[in-house]
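Sample A.
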Amino acid sequence: MRETNSGAAALMSQPPLTVSDRLARKALRNFKERVIELLLLGAASVSVLTTVGIIWVLVSESFNFFSNVSIWSFLTDTMWTPLFAEPRYGILPLLAGTLTTSMVALVVAIPLGTTIAIYLSEFARPAVREVVKPFLELLGGIPTIVYGYFALMVVIPLLQLLIPDLSGFNMLGAGIVMGIAIIPYVSSLAEDAMRAVPMSMREGSYAMGATKLQTAFRVIFPAALSGILSAYILGISRAVGETMIVAVAAGMQPNFTVNPLEPAQTISAYIVQVALGDLPHGSIGYQSIFAAGLSLMLMTLALNLVGHVVRRRFREAY
């Protein structure tokens, strides 16, 4: 009994247990990491919430528009006259203008961008690449309004020397300058995809007696096809959503035509026109910009889905 009492007294006399410095630092580190994770989650959520907000605004406002205009007439009518006394809301003229200018731009951007990418990846010396690549990136940073006035003041007058009857506003000049504007996107991404191909494939091709040109087109290009097609898809999306070039140089006339020599209006250019205050806020004409924006978003979404399928179909793992 006396021994038990003495043992209890010894335990009571010991100092209280404290957390070691190592465990305290670990707990503090875990707390900091948790805070950082929450901050990163919040940053990532911004893009998601922004996208959800944009979709909500477009869908809700488009619902109000389609409660007054039938979807069938919106998709099939060939007249787009929201400013007339008897307005008609057929998206086909704007859709034709958007697709025509985009096709002209792609005819310019894809061949030139691919050629530049092949040259920078396979033929250019490092010193040349270090000079050309920043200039391409600088070309991609020029404001599109500058490109628009360049098309209006330089490109279209040059085209009129070749085609005397060409209008001062047309889709051809706007599309050509759009193609020049998206060349940096196509060439930069395509070149990155080609340079990602392992050097062993090049060395194997050279060992078989192939030239640089044969290696570039028969080995490197097929091996990097997934990334190159992704660059093309990005270029198409960029051309479809272009605004200021077509607003300045293509004219603001919603003509239902696919002739690039004629003026036309694109979906994004119409949104700019209405945003300037040509229609009263809350009217059906004003709500039409949300329906047009929803159509443009669905086009871009379809292109992104196609790009995702293409990447999965042609992706090569090294």
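Sample B.
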Amino acid sequence: MLETSARLLRLLSLLQSRRDWPGAELAERLGVTTRTVRRDVDRLRDLGYPVESATGTTGGYRLGVGAALPPLLLDDDEAVAVAVGLRAAATGTVTGIEETSLRALTKLEQVLPSRLRHRVGAMQSAILPLTGPGPTVNPELLTTLAAACRAHEGIRFGYQQHTRRAEPYRLVHTGRRWYLLAFDLDRDDWRTFRVDRIDRAPQPGPRFTPRPEPAEGVHAYVSNALTAAPYRHRATILFHAPLDAVAEHTSPTAGRLEPRDADSCLFYAGGDSLDSIAVFVALKGIDFQVLDPPELKDHIRALAQRLTRASSED
């Protein structure tokens, strides 16, 4: 009986980890036959878990949406992450979710083992959220977009008074704003959309086969789209310091860092004016060299002369 219960928990964990599972693969992971998998799936259904079956030669299972929320299986790290995430959500940029997050957090902490309550309490006591005015998003919109990303379902939505058709890929949070990375079907290219600028609820479309990621990789594409592409000027800076040292003074939304060697790194950024880029880079307090554009060097020389005159005695 203990072996069966442990196997059911393992099966539930697998079903929660991804959308679709072939029966043969589940049997291999659990070390049992496909017939045993079918019996275990029936047991989960009896316990209230809405496990759906797929027909066909291979067969398959997925954890569907039920009328009631069954218990979720979380390991220690996942439980701590959920608790800390709920605390962040209570004071974050998602509107209308603060009180709900606190209620859910209270329920979770009531059943946490003491060793985990101490971990959560230590992290919460050390975190001081400093929130300010800025754009917020509706939690229902976030969950709708996240579900479309997970299910590979196309969407049609309003964006700054225009209708857009896209294949959603991933939600990105920069600490201040939420962005949707998607393939824009009308422009036939990858795009990032600010979620707070979606002004008409997404409508579901047909499912799609995921496309290859952007050539430079998802992280580099999103970083470039947020820090360089929207601006009039782009710059490439060589910092004479290790990447980790520069990263301590640079947020992901300010620019993209790449390692060059053990003692230097490259910084790609954009700005509406060359002066703003010059000041931003200079204030890091790290030796640097402008690689591009050439006119940025002239602005830095002029800025240096202006600062020198300002500090000279009359």
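B remarks: Residues 294-311 form the longest helix (18 residues). The mean pLDDT is 82.
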